[in-house]
User: Fold RNA helicase from Photinus pyralis.
Amino acid sequence: MDEWDDPVPVTQNSTSSDGGRSFSRGRGFSAHSNENGSANDNGWGEDRGRGGGGGGFGGRERRGRGGGRGGGRSEGWDNNDNGNSGGGGGWGDENNEDGGSRRGRGGRGGGRGGRGRGGGGRNDDSWGGNQKSEDSWGGGGGDDSEPRENNWGGGDSNGNRGGGRGRGGGRGGRGGGRGGRDGGGDGETNWNSGEGGDEAEQPKREIYVPPEPTMDEDELFSSGNTSGLNFGKYDDIAVEVSGENVPKPITNFEQSGLRKLLLDNVLKSGYTKPTPVQKNAIPMIMNGRDVMACAQTGSGKTAAFLLPIIHCLLDQPTELIFDGESCQPQAIIVSPTRELCIQIFEEARKFSFNSIIKVAKAYGGTSVGYQRKHVVNGCHILVATPGRMHDFVKRGSISFASARFVVLDEADRMLDMGFLPAMEEMMTHDTMVATGERQTLMFSATFPEEIQHLAAKFLNNYIFVAVGIVGSACSDVEQIFFQVDKFKKREKLLEILREDSERTLVFVETKRNADFLATFLSENNFISTSIHGDRLQREREEALNDFKRGSKNILVATAVAARGLDIKNVKHVINYDLPKSIDEYVHRIGRTGRVGNRGKATSFYDSSQDGAIASQLSRILSQSGQNVPDWLQHGGGGTYSSSAFGGRDIRGDDFAQSRNVEEPTDDW
Assistant:
């Protein structure tokens, strides 16, 4: 095994639904039942036999032997549910409890547990206990009705049921052993296979090496949306520009000053004329300015920064520094999600096609050694997610000493509390070129004022560009709302899909629900797949590619697919669960109606859950010229904050200039 690689768990059939229906290799759902015997590790599976094992879920494999040795019925279901017993242990993402069977002699327990008597015993090394759990190994025998967090094992939640010293189960952990008749004992075994442990039942490990990027020109340029019927309307969108000595916008690609090779690749990519954000940002970047740009979803922001960056790297070349152990990229582009990282990488390859520019990507869930090899052998442009980039910098594989451009795509997300520490560490790293000596570019569809304040400290004399009503939804997306109780959403979804299921993206709030809903749709003859953060990277890429190619018409997704993804011909976005943030709503529905194409977004509104954003939804509908239902106008529960959108430069009117992109003023 490469010393750079940290194996990740893999399962033969990655996600599952209840009833033992398994989700096979990231490529859709199919029915599969387990009865009268040992359970299959592939499903949530209801085990109707003696000693059935637990079922896997959520892209992981449940290897505990639980499920009750004493006959009777045990069920290997339990993700995110508190207070369930039965079904023995095993590896389960977002498990709140995974107690052993209470029928017969108690479950054999699943997985590594802490040292403890029942659930109330001593926990020496924080692996045991009964706190609420995510990514935990299932508990031992007994009724484990209390949730546990970030711990291994389990046992009796009250610490007073059963009490026999039993053998540890699963991987031979310290606890969760086979206890007394009703409860979980304080069984003790060796860390590895020990008494009751089974080395052969450990989860398989996989180092994922993604497919090599295509070198076929036709295939490379076939992805992405092309201009739609409403593309001409972009000319009417007002643009507000703030800053000093702002360069004039371009009116077409031919007179933009871009190199001929770039113009050829732009044409192959299906671009006929620049969008408003491209007309303004391209000359700004080519003139060496820092930029903070806000533009609607699907408005061509990626090309707005890639084209001038590649032009400058070709037009003013500097030596590419690398030695096989480390590399100094000249342009670093950081994105919040792996899928967006891959997409930007492919776009950079398009625009730099047939040039000397080398592009590399670095993102989590894949072989570290494989990606490191591509990076340290030299790259002009590095597209990365924060975690993997941090790892490479820490290991000395990446230095920022030659950085000419630093780009934060989906910058509002990159500078929120989740990613801010990583971004601050990158921007202030010992090897990072100082602000003012590099160009820093930030692009997003939403830019709240508080994020602008954070961003400003990384920028130098920057230009702020706001295209249209910043933070508003694209007017090419028809927005439809239905009042739906949460228990009636599934039937409403089927009703809508029976009318039209062409290339539909369904958003849910939880990872568990993504798998469950995709299974439900497949059982109702709608070929579906799912994508979320708990799936293995291989499975995520397969699911997204299946949806892009059209072999799966429906993709059920969490927020991992909400930002930036440019999937060709997405006709319909359905918010099965509305997000908690209005900005997230804007990003979600922006997966359709891109580059002048028409799209439709349907949202299920549950007043008991969604009242907090009712007034902001009303505002979004009004801003995009669409009908606001009376019940939504009076839905209440939330208040609108102007800072939620960040539609103006925080530096005030002294910097502001309004322009129509087709009629620039003579002052520039």
